Amino acid sequence: DGLNDTWEIDGIDKYPMAEVFIFDRFGKLLAKYYGYELGWNGIYLEKLMPSTDYWYIINIPSGPQYTGHFTLINH
Questions:
Q1: In sequence order, what E strands does 1-75 have?
Q2: Which of 15, 44, 66, 68 would staple 58 via disulfide (CB 3.0–4.6 Å)?
Q3: How many angstroms separate the CA atoms of 58 and 17, rounded?
Q4: Which residues lie closer than 8 Å to 16 by C-beta, 6 or more apart?
Q5: How much is the average pLDDT of 3-20?
Q6: 3-class DSSP state for residue 13?
Q7: 38 with 26: CB under 8 angstroms?
Q8: CA-to-CA distance for 47 and 34, rounded, in angstroms?
Q9: Can you tell me the mean pLDDT for 15-44?
Q10: CB–CB of 7/39 below 8 Å?
């Protein structure tokens, strides 16, 4: 439907070189992108990932590191 098709972080564009890493519950790296890029679309190896929790790490150059999790919901 074009709504919420990517997981994006509000304001990340202010830190274009910030690195965002997304992992599954087993710690497998599923995606990496920079602050200047679009967010994660929920796809890994050309397959839509299941609805479940995912974890992230955000590294901001010369700044803090943020960690947390979110739930991906597929319809």
A1: 19-23, 29-34, 43-44, 47-48, 52-59, 65-72
A2: 66
A3: 10
A4: 34, 35, 36
A5: 88
A6: helix
A7: no
A8: 21
A9: 95
A10: yes
Q: How many Å apart are CA 38 and CA 4, to the nearest integer?
A: 12
8 A C-beta contact, residue 52 and residue 25: yes
Single-letter amino acid, residue 52 = T
Q: For residues 25 and 55, is the Cβ–Cβ distance under 8 A?
A: yes
Q: Report pLDDT for 2.
A: 64
How far is residue 42's CA from residue 5's CA, in Å, rounded to a whole number?
8
What is the average pLDDT score of the chain?
Answer: 92
For 53, the token pair is 């929790």
CB 51 within 8 A of CB 72: yes
